[in-house]
Amino acid sequence: MSEEASDADRFLALVAAAQSREIRLTSIQAGLLVAAELGIARDSRTFARLLGIAHSLVLRELNVLAEREGVLQIVKRDLRTMRVHYTLPPRGGA
Predict the structure, then answer these.
(1) Tens digit of pLDDT for each residue in 31-87?
(2) Could you give the maximum distance between any two Cα atoms of the chain, in Å?
(3) How far is the C-alpha of 5 from the C-alpha of 23, rounded, in Å?
(4) pLDDT at 2 over 70
(5) Neighbouring-strand partners of residue 74
(6) Burial class of residue 93 in the structure, from the number of CB atoms within 10 Å of its CB (0-12 exposed, 13-18 middle, 19+ buried)
(7) pTM score over 0.90
(8) Residue 32 in contact with residue 55, Cβ under 8 Å?
(9) Computed from CA positions of residues 2, 43, 72, 67, in that sequence, does the dihedral angle turn out positive or negative?
């Protein structure tokens, strides 16, 4: 199996695991979170391009996540390109 295929399989497994932990997540939402955690994509256009998904769908799911407390933070919006940069919130811990 090629490295690219194993990376894709790993990504999909992590997306499925995220969805099993949080049943409200759609596959795109879980993918956005996993991509941010792994450093694969931290903006909407890159995520859409890498996964072959319409940017408008990614924006919709990203905004839903941003509305939930503590799930994801929007750090910058480019009004010209509609690109939205996002990050995961810092993990709390004592």
Answers:
(1) 999 999 999 999 999 999 999 999 999 999 999 999 987 889 999 999 998 999 999
(2) 42
(3) 26
(4) no
(5) 86
(6) exposed
(7) no
(8) no
(9) negative
